[in-house]
Amino acid sequence: MPDENRYDDIIALPHSTSKRHPRMSRLNRAAQFAPFAALTGYGDAIAEAARQTGDQRELTDAERLALGEKLATLRDRLADSPTVTVTYFRPDPRKAGGEYTSVTGNVRRVREYERELYMADGTIIPFDRILDIDGEWIP
């Protein structure tokens, strides 16, 4: 068969190298065959979709009454600069729902008309998102 000996004339020749271009390092050579991210941001989108959020729970009448008493006591004791831990619902900025979080610090102001609690660190918490208020001053 003529195909068996087709490359016999060049098989023993030395490998040619360019005089103008230096040899590529193994690392650079391997990099050109590495996979690429065809769907940029797809992994982030999957992680965002998998992230869990919850719904804000509705307070019972008894819980709402107890919270109102705590806010009234807190308002009366603002001059003492009380340290409290407020647990409240923080809505998620990107999807429906949110999560409950707690912040501990001094209360700067209770605004009844705006129905907001102002913390010394700048956190503003709407009354309707507060789940509980706790502190040493609570009877």
Main sheet summary: 5 strands, antiparallel
Taking strands numbered 1, 2, ... along the chain, how are they ordered across the largest sheet?
Answer: 4-3-2-1-5
- The CATH first-level class of the domain at 61-134 comes to Mainly Beta
Using DSSP, what is the number of strands? 5
The percent of residues in helical segments reads: 10-25%
User: How much strand?
Assistant: 25-35%
**What's the Cα radius of gyration?**
34 Å
Low-confidence residue ranges: none
- Mean pLDDT equals 87
Number of H/I helices: 3
Q: What is the CA–CA distance across the termini?
A: 103 Å
Assembly status: single chain
What pattern of helices and strands is seen along the backbone?
Answer: HHHEEEEE
Structure in a nutshell:
With 139 residues, the protein is an alpha+beta fold. The chain has a domain at 61-134: Roll (SH3 type barrels).
Describe the 3D structure:
The protein is of the alpha+beta class. It has a domain at 61-134: SH3 type barrels (Roll), CATH 2.30.30. Helix content is 22%, strand content 25%. The protein is built from 3 helices and 5 strands. It has a 5-stranded antiparallel β-sheet with strand order 4-3-2-1-5, with helices on one face. The chain is rod-shaped, with a radius of gyration of 34 Å. The model has no long low-confidence stretch (mean pLDDT 87).
